[in-house]
């Protein structure tokens, strides 16, 4: 009796010992157990990072989830790890653990960095976030050079060129695997257009091209699906609201940061699309800010087809109306400066 109860205690203790437990689960996967992708979130203890970690833990395509931050990642990891979903979660804290967090990853999602306060532009974040993105991307180049990178940290119009230069310097640059996340602009556009049309936003598809800041966010309302038309007043209202969506949230939060919940939703949606592409699913198409030949600029957001190689095809913009052509010229002017600023940050 006593020996069976102590055996039971030993059995339970063995199960409660997280490192052994994780090792056993991973050995099982290595032997052909649960398939799935290894995903790291850098900045996982932040406003976006925590909700994104929750959503990625729920994604059945994820087998291993690494949560890295310079603060509070152990607490977030302990919390998320109690969810009874498949992914094994591990936490990593601070620069000395960055390499362990990144080694072997298939997808790296980066929401690390400071958010805006009222009165700031995204470019005002450059001085702090540029250095953060550089350090994290140096880690990616060293530890998982073939990973797909989803870059969320602002200003995206500059941080994506920064990441590209870091990867070029390291000799690991693959333009198909570096994607700036603009999905939130699309979810906002679908929502606001759905409101105007009286449609469920799930039924609406608005391409949003250009970049991710102010006038560089260019919704193509002439290409909305299902096909529809807008009055000039509706076009003006919708374009402005989509371009100012981030500022609307920053002002409403009144100093407590920028969009985190809708962004985590958008980031999880985009990460899932990237994983479906990596898995080999056909017809996975999302907007993203990528290396591009669609305009004369080296980076531009447009629809891309996601596949095993990452952004396998970058789609042309299609026919634009006069309003959109004028918007495109404005967007390109601002984008050119932001891209150059990012590139110079590494090249200088
Ligand atoms: N692309 C988009 O559409 C979009 C949308 C919303 C927010 N953002 C941007 O995402 C970023 C994060 O926003 P948030 O609201 O989550 O901010 P936050 O301050 O709540 O969280 C940021 C996290 O990054 C961590 N961090 C800072 N330096 C780091 C480093 N060197 N390595 C790892 N982690 C580090 C912080 O500790 C913090 O936990 C901001 O730059 C914001 O502007 C982008
Ligand atoms: O607006 C911001 O600063 C955050 C983000 O880029 C957004 O669009 O919500």
TrEMBL record:
Enzyme class, broadest EC rank: oxidoreductase
InterPro entries named in the record: L-lactate/malate_DH, Lactate/malate_DH_C, Lactate/malate_DH_N, Lactate_DH/Glyco_Ohase_4_C, Malate_DH_AS, Malate_DH_type1, NAD(P)-bd_dom_sf
EC id: 1.1.1.37
Domain (Lactate/malate dehydrogenase N-terminal): residue spans on this chain: 38-180
Binding site for NAD(+): 43-49, 69, 129, 152-154, 263
GO biological process, one term: tricarboxylic acid cycle
Protein name: Malate dehydrogenase
UniProt source species: Linum tenue
């Amino acid at each position: 009796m006593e020996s069976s109860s102590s055996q039971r205690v030993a059995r339970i203790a063995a199960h409660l010992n997280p490192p052994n437990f994780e090792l056993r689960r991973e050995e099982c996967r290595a032997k052909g157990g649960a398939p799935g992708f290894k995903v790291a979130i850098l900045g996982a203890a932040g406003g976006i990072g925590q909700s994104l970690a929750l959503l990625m833990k729920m994604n059945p395509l994820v087998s291993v989830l690494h949560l890295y931050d310079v603060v509070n990642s152990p607490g977030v990891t302990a919390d998320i790890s109690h969810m009874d979903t498949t992914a094994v979660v591990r936490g990593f804290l601070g620069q000395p653990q960055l390499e362990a967090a990144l080694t072997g990853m298939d997808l790296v999602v980066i929401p690390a960095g400071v958010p805006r306060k009222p009165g700031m532009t995204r470019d005002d974040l450059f001085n702090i976030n540029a250095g953060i993105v550089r350090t994290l991307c140096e880690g990616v180049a060293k530890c998982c050079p073939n990973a797909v990178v989803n870059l969320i940290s602002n200003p995206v119009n500059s941080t994506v060129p920064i990441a590209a230069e870091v990867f070029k310097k390291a000799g690991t640059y693959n333009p198909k695997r570096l994607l700036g996340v603009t999905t939130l602009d699309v979810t906002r556009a679908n929502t606001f257009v759905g409101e105007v049309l009286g449609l469920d936003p799930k039924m609406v598809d608005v391409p949003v091209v250009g970049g991710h800041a102010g006038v560089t966010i260019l919704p193509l309302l002439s290409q909305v699906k299902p096909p529809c038309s807008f009055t000039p007043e509706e076009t003006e209202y919708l374009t402005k609201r989509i371009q100012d969506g981030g500022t609307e949230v920053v002002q409403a939060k009144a100093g407590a940061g920028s969009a985190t919940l809708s962004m985590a939703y958008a980031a999880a949606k985009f990460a899932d699309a990237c994983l479906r592409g990596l898995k080999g699913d056909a017809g996975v198409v999302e907007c993203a800010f990528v290396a591009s030949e669609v305009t004369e600029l080296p980076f531009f957001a447009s629809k891309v087809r996601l596949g095993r190689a990452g952004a396998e095809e970058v789609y042309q913009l299609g026919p634009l109306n006069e309003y959109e052509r004028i918007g495109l010229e404005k967007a390109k002017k601002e984008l050119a400066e932001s891209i150059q600023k990012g590139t110079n940050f590494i090249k200088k």
